[in-house]
From TrEMBL:
It comes from the Bacteria. Keywords: Signal. Residues 1-39 form the signal peptide. This is DUF5626 domain-containing protein.
Length: 181
């Protein structure tokens, strides 16, 4: 008779799998705690005006939206708002996207690619049924403005479903030096 009691005593494969899972969890925790924090710079020649501040107080409808079975194509991109992001020296641009799609890393500020960390959902609009979202507002954090000049924001959205319609928008913002004397 063969002794098979070793299968009940943590075989090597089970121990290795437990170590891999533990390592993965530890890595996830370490990455979530290592978010860099940057201090605002105060040596910018651009003055931040309080009337040009974007606040995060846009009302978001109650979470009773339902998603459509077939997502409609992106039909329009338009400038919704822009200004200094509240509490920072960063410039923000809010784009209204009508339809369902994404920018797939196709957003740029002065030819520098913006990352997914630079974009947040700012709000959405409901359709006639008051349950289905038909348009979305995305806030792009373009970073601090350190020099006077004209800065360009551009992005391209691609529809979620076939025929994968593309819509683009390009906007110029001019910043002038202020005389602090």
């Amino acid at each position: 008779m063969v002794n098979t009691s070793w299968t009940n005593k943590n075989p090597v494969g089970v121990i290795v799998m437990k170590k891999i899972i533990s390592l993965f969890i530890a890595l996830c925790i370490a990455l979530s705690l290592s978010v860099p924090v940057f201090a605002a710079t105060s040596d910018s020649p651009i003055t931040i005006s309080s009337e040009d501040v974007i606040t995060h107080s846009t009302p978001i409808p109650a979470p009773t939206i339902t998603l459509r079975k077939s997502a409609p194509q992106v039909t329009a991109l338009e400038l919704y708002d822009y200004g200094w992001i509240e509490g920072t020296d960063h410039w923000g641009v809010i784009i209204k996207v009508t339809g369902y799609g994404n920018d797939n890393r196709k957003a740029f500020w002065n030819d520098t690619q913006l990352t997914s960390n630079d974009k947040t959902l700012h709000g959405y609009w409901l359709g006639p049924d008051n349950k289905t979202a038909v348009a979305f507002a995305y806030l792009y954090d373009c970073g601090p403005i350190t020099e006077p000049g004209t800065y360009t924001f551009k992005t391209t959205y691609v529809s979620t479903n076939w025929p994968y319609t593309e819509k683009s928008i390009s906007l110029d913002f001019t910043f002038e030096a202020t005389d602090n004397t």
